[in-house]
Amino acid sequence: MSVASSADSFTPSLLDRQRIVAKAGFNRWLVPPAALAIHLCIGMSYGLSVFWLPLSQALGITKPVTCPDMTVAQALFTTTCDWRVSDLLVTFTVGIVFLGLSAAVFGGWLERAGPRKAGVVAALCWGGGFLISAAAVQIHQLWLLWLGLGVVGGIGLGLGYISPVSTLIKWFPDRRGMATGMAIMGFGGGAMIGSPIAILLMNHFRSAESVGAKEALAVIGCLYIVAMLCGAFGYRVPPDGWTPDGWQPSGTQSKALITHGHVHLDNAHKTPQFWLIWIVLCMNVSAGIGVLAMASPMLQEIFAGKLIGLPDIRFSDLTPIQATAIAGIAGGFVSLLSLFNSGGRFLWASLSDHIGRKPTYFCFFVLGMALYALAPTFAHMGSIPLFVGAFCIILTMYGGGFSTVPAYLADIFGTQFVGAIHGRLLTAWSTAGVLGPLVIGYIRDAQIAAGIPRALVYDRTMYILVGFLLVGFIANALIRPVADKWLMSDAEVAKLQAAKATATHSTGSHGIGFGGMSPAALIAWLLVGIPFFWGVWNTLGKAVVLFR
Q1: Which end of the chain is more exposed for a tag (fewer CB within 10 A), N or C?
Q2: CATH number at residue 356
């Protein structure tokens, strides 16, 4: 609780929840850009891999200083041997684990303290994690890198990820899915912006004494602190009871699953609905994150020379120059997956407003099972466009699963504690972040050890991912409305709202939430939109070779 406690004592007059209750004339369309500013920064967690190869030769500069018999314990403290890529990869895993843990632990505090405090702490932790990691490179200590981007940065990821969720759902009760999709799409697309910037910075700072990673980490850390603080100070919350003018809950296709009450945070995890949604998210993420973890080697090993117009050359027969060329193409594939991951977060979440959350997840599982099952066939056909297209669609559903689940939780448990409940649910992401890549990596290595050609080692993996999605499909089918016994009484809700000590209770718009695309909203959207579309343009330029 030290992080939360320190946040509570940090200029409370400026960060207190009472200070960010919207006043008359506030435009609710200013809130999504604030959330995007934070999510586009923390989304760089998907792009950290650009640092691994340079960091693996931080001492040798032009080639790694290797120590073949070095144990992990020795790697943590060595100052004379370069780090192995496998040890650097642990940083990402630690970060995802702490994302889920911090979201679960601090979710309740976030509901009380408000999104601005959480956003400030997230900025200091995520940006600070980069600064700590720059120091780790300076003194060449792997444990400090794990602590920086893994533990401290992971806490920033968790708080930054959930900070806008309940706020946006309350601002957009008429479009819950679209609202959360707008923010969470930034997490999927953050790597499109951060990765190219990191590469540009490393190239700029590279010298005979440095691979440029240390300096790039420090600069990016400072940039992220500034950008995320701007987002945090842009947050506003509506008065309790506020609704858009003229809006009334309407009967949609998902009406049967929308509760008209609220489930307390202390009771949500006691319901079967929480654990069924946990399984739904875990299975969807396990399948998708496994693909993300292996996307580059998978494309290279399956298609090898065909990627550069030499269909008869296998992966093991590539020359160093050819291997470098297909690695660049595979990098474009990874960036393209990031683009579809991001776009799917908005598109699927918006669609869920119309067809319902449960049917949306059925789409994920049915379509996903079909595409995973067909992927080996596309590979055997040698069709790069079909193979790449299938995984682009799969990644839209991976991202869509993240952006749809907050609205799913709000439908099932109400909105009073949706941010904290979402935080606890993200332990499913932590689990999937270990389960998916480990299972897929183990199967791949076992197939290679058994002498299976590299072009075929992913066939069995694809069928196992179908099994993951089948489990998720069954869990989704079992979800029902929560029993009335779990709903809070009107008196309990009133007491809770009074305890938050927000400004006034409002049952209408009272001039709050309107304005459309006002000049201020337009400027806010341009500030986040320009770098986002720069990332999209850069990604498309790299990926076009896959469809030639």
Answers
A1: C
A2: 1.20.1250.20
